Amino acid sequence: MEAPPLKTTVDASPRHRQLEDTLDRIGVTGAHRQIGAMVLLGVFFDALEQNAVGLVGPVLQESWGTTAAELGFLNTITFTAAALGRLTTGIIGDKMGRRTMLTVNLLLFSLGALICAFAPVYAVVAVGRFIVGFGLGGEIAIAVTMMSEFFAARHRGTAVGIINVTAGGLGNMLAPGFGVLVFTFFSGPDRWRWLFGMLAVPALLVLFYRRYVPETPRYLLSRGKVDEANLVLNKLASGRLRGRPEKPQQFITAVESGEKVVAERNRLRDVFMGTLRRRTLSLGVAVCMSYGAQISILSLMPTILVAQGHSITKSLLFTLVMQAGSLVGALVASTAARYVPRKVVFTVAAGLGCAAAFCFGFLADGVALILILGAAVNCCIITLNTTIWIFAPEQFPTRVRAFGTSIILALGSLAGGLTPMLAGAAFDAYGMAGMFTLIGMLFVGLAVSVQFPPETFGRSMEETAEESAAQPAEESAAQPAEESVTEPAGQPADDTTGSTR
């Protein structure tokens, strides 16, 4: 079934209604595709960086005698730093804009990769991974936010979903192949350095292309920059990002004189208040379950296969086959985003993932079953992760969207750093059955937690924001009242949610 017709709330301000209608009329142009390509190129290398410790783990053990605990710590420090990077990027992204943080985060994880490549001792590798994680986390959070803001409701889910087709799908699937390629061309105990070094070079090239990525029109409008928002909309409509449109249109007109609005401020604490608090907590729990399962498998599977007697090369190839499920999962989620409500996708994927995890833990006693069931588990995990990336930005108004999204993804990063230690302990104590029973329980927790936020399928972002602005009477009474202001004609207020009173 096609997505339902766009329903725009009657309470949204005129300029926000105009923006939603304009994006809907423009559809998807060549400019959208150029923006998407530049963003996706960056997140692809993010995915390779995310897999790097798992790829070099067996080689580091061989050359430096690195213990499993030390490898686990590299993952922990990477994903802890990713959480900090996401929070910092979310704060700056809401205060100063989305596009600036793309370049900053890209530079950071490229610098971290180079530090790892030239590290003389384990401690320096740990420092490099911290820097990598900081940039890595911010990159994904701001990419998800930007892609959600460039598209109308009927294209938004698919556009955000394609990020994980590139990162969680292609990136995770091709990462083991990248490791095999590097280790084929470079031999010796230091061949892991070449892997880190090569991750920095392509990422730096993306900086050239990102000069042409504009700020999102939603963010510009939320800051009262109507002329700049109109310029970006004209570029989107023309299909070209370079230069100025020859015959610009005035898509967003001045607010009618006399309209009274509440002047909304950029208050980050709002994501922990009222209805937004429930959304933040519910999706925070969900992403912890999903990321914990994903990173446990990514970081432990090559080492587990080596422990079972397979060579490093064969273990990476087996992991590549299993990661093919990630690409399928990302494609399923991005396609379903256009036709199926978000909560239906969550519930079905979590149920199938739980079944696949239990089957893996108790039935996967041969190579064929390991590959098939491993691919099935990865497919369900990435379906869930992608849908979370789609769902999270839709829950927050523009003024705190980057921060709200980054909070949720930061919690996922923390879980990604901690859960592999629990999964590793379960594997040491109870084998594959223990590890994948834990993963199956994570799917159950996710299925429950995603039922609490509101469904956003087919709805404008401003409509969902209006729901979040409606505070319970007793909570509103306990807070200082904002002062209503009357806007002169042609002077848009800094009304970041588009609410009226």
Give structural attributes:
globular, 501 residues, disordered N terminus, disordered C terminus, mainly alpha
Helix content: over 70%
Helix count equals: 16
User: Helix and strand string, N-terminal first?
Assistant: HHHHHHHHHEHHHHHHHE
Q: Mind telling me the C-alpha Rg?
A: 23 Å
Largest sheet: 2 strands, antiparallel
Beta-strand content estimate: under 5%
Biggest sheet: strand arrangement:
1-2
What does the overall shape look like? globular
Written overview of the protein:
It is a single chain. The protein is mainly α. Helices cover 74% and strands 1% of the residues. The protein has 16 helices and two strands. It has helices at 14-26, 30-64, 68-96, 99-117, 122-150, 153-185, 191-209, 217-222, 226-238, 274-307, 312-339, 342-363, 367-391, 401-449, 461-469, 473-478; strands spanning 260-262, 484-486. It has a two-stranded antiparallel ribbon. Helix 5 (122-150) runs antiparallel to helix 6 (153-185). 56% of the residues are buried. Residues 1-11, 256-264 and 471-501 have low confidence and may be disordered.
Outline:
With 501 residues, the chain is mainly α. It has 16 helices and two strands. Mean pLDDT is 81; it is low at 1-11, 256-264 and 471-501.
